[in-house]
Amino acid sequence: MEIPKILERYKDYLQSSVKLSNRIIFTEEDTKPWESKLGGCPYLEDTEDYPKDEDGRPMMFLAQINLTEMPPLPNFPQKGILQFYIKDSDLYGLDENCSVKYIADYRTDETTLIKENPYRCSYESFEPFSTDCKITFVQEEMFIETSCQEFEDTFEDVTAEENDALFDLCCTGESRVGGYPYFVQQAPAYYEDDDIDVLLLQLDVDDTSGLMFGDSGNCNFLISQKELDKLDFSLVEYDWQCC
Fold it and tell me: Domain containing 116: what range?
């Protein structure tokens, strides 16, 4: 990526901060049970496999990522399906436990799979999108995000012009897997303090799907590299913020 001349003195640092990310593209298309998607029916062999919250109620299915469908990312699994569920509440499960399921092996015989979400009609809250969509990916490089302490410490003495150029260059919005997250308000404490900094999924404002959390908000699912290496998704942190 090209770094503008006004930021030439930070060129080495910015280049050292680059991470790969798979930006998500939403299209209004039907999907197979195992394909990457927003909304619709998750890959499901038996209704007993559907996640429930602590009260025993079905959770809200948000999205599914088939890892074989996206360009490889460093230190990510290369196969299997990741599913993302949140508590069915008017606050989209804010401050509640989420559920991220990893399915290492899956069938592609549709006759053996459930084709409609068996609990969607019983959701008590509206989903944060209006249209189910197929998900595809475009891989791109990203510079360090603007809401972390490292960014603030590194660029505390920049001029106003440099600051504007940095925020243009280091934009980490849009829906994506991997790379740097974008926090609408501020980075959560765990992101700075607990090494929970691997972005499993970010869902950001999108016109095609009508995706939006609150007022122009987005959501993030983050995990530590240690837990990801173990394929242990029991300690994923979920958060959403809006304006």
Answer: 5-241
For residue 32, CA distances in Å to 66, 75, 135, 166 come to 11, 27, 11, 41
User: In the prediction, which pLDDT does 1 show?
Assistant: 76
Q: Which residues of the chain have pLDDT under 50?
A: none
* pLDDT, position 2: 87
DSSP designation for 38: E
Q: Which of 96, 79, 81, 83 is nearest to 51 (CA)?
A: 83
Nearest to 53 by CA among 122, 115, 104: 122
| CATH code, domain with 179 | 2.30.320.10
Cβ(39)–Cβ(129) below 8 Å: yes
pLDDT of 241 reads: 96
- Per-residue pLDDT at 147: 84
What domain count does the chain have? 1
